[in-house]
Design a protein that fits this description.
Residues 110-257 form the N-acetyltransferase domain. It comes from Talaromyces rugulosus (Penicillium rugulosum). This protein has 259 residues and is of the alpha+beta class. It has a single domain, classed as 3-Layer(aba) Sandwich (Aminopeptidase), CATH 3.40.630. 42% of the residues lie in helices and 20% in strands. It is built from 9 helices and 7 strands; from the N terminus they run βαααβαβαααβαβαββ. The protein has a 7-stranded mixed β-sheet with strand order 1-2-3-4-5-7-6, sandwiched between helices. The structure holds coenzyme A.
Length: 259
């Protein structure tokens, strides 16, 4: 597996990966009207397509924001062989997923965001490209104000409730101005627990070490073991147990690397 910078033709692949992962995330399922593409119920396909389309639009805009960097994880031949052998041993039909037009298999992606006003931060934010930065800020505004009203896959009152609850959580204290944040970390369910998430984190940890800053991430319960294993500490937690039906123990953890 290797990492390479995001290209526009990866948009469908990364949206499909995030949408797949969302199906196992109780927090996303709280505010999204979606259903699995694998079920055969009437209308499911339409809901699934709306979910992927909405996810794609949100990701494409997020990737454009000043300071944001997206990496995709591409499988190498030996990964594909190892995965197919493993599936053969288990008598499962080998599957591939998330291919791009170049016939590569995209297994996951990360989006990192550099905050701050140091020379280094400004370099990541494209300082000096004023027009581009303004255009990106405008798109960001449009994303927040216009995306959801026309998005049939979002239950807006529930989404507002989710965001309100997230904001009322215990504050982790003042954030450092100079920092990296991990905005997205998704590995396709077919390729999880093969060390790819850990490899994807390495890029950010190396950057943070070189720039002498911390990394912050608001982690799902699914992500927490990965961050703990890679040197992050939990500094705060928001409990969603009371808000989402049958969701006792569902939390978002504030994790920091570099303390
Ligand atoms: C969380 C996620 C990114 C982990 O990616 P991954 O490629 O499966 O992680 P790795 O294989 O690199 O795991 C490294 C270590 O993290 C820990 N870990 C990862 N997933 C775990 C799980 N489900 N349960 C327990 N430990 C886990 C283990 O210690 C693992 O090492 P091991 O397999 O040798 O025991 C992936 O499961 C995912 O995309 N989940 C859905 C989206 C999500 O929740 N993203 C996090 C958003 S903050």
């Amino acid at each position: 597996m290797h990492l390479r910078p995001y290209r526009n033709q990866d948009a469908n692949a990364i949206a499909a990966i995030k949408a797949r992962c969302d199906l196992a995330d109780p927090l996303v399922l709280f505010y999204r009207r979606t259903s699995s593409p694998d079920t055969q119920q009437k209308g499911d396909d339409k809901r699934w397509r709306a979910h992927v389309k909405s996810t794609r639009r949100a990701l494409c805009l997020e990737i454009l924001m000043p300071g944001n960097v997206c990496w995709v994880l591409v499988l190498d031949d030996e990964d594909v062989e190892a995965i197919n052998n493993h599936q053969n041993q288990q008598n499962k039909k080998p599957k591939h997923s998330s291919r791009t037009t170049n016939d590569e298999t995209v297994a996951g992606f990360t989006i990192w965001s550099r905050f701050g006003s140091s020379d280094m931060a400004r370099r990541w934010q494209g300082h000096g490209e004023k027009l581009t930065t303004r255009a990106k800020a405008f798109l960001s505004h449009m994303n927040l104000s216009i995306q959801y009203p026309f998005d049939s896959s979002i239950d807006r009152p529930r989404m507002a409730q989710f965001i309100r609850h997230l904001k009322t959580g215990p504050s982790p204290g003042p954030l450092e101005k100079e920092r990296w944040e991990l905005e997205a970390m998704y590995i396709h369910p077919l390729y999880q627990r093969r060390g790819f998430g850990g490899k994807a984190l390495e890029w950010g940890i190396e950057r943070a070490q070189q720039e002498d800053v911390r990394i912050w991430v608001w982690s799902t319960d699914a992500g927490k073991p990965l961050y703990l294993k890679n040197g992050f500490d939990e500094v705060g937690k928001v409990d969603f147990g009371g808000m989402i039906p049958d969701s006792e123990g569902v939390t978002v953890s504030v994790m920091v690397w570099g303390i």
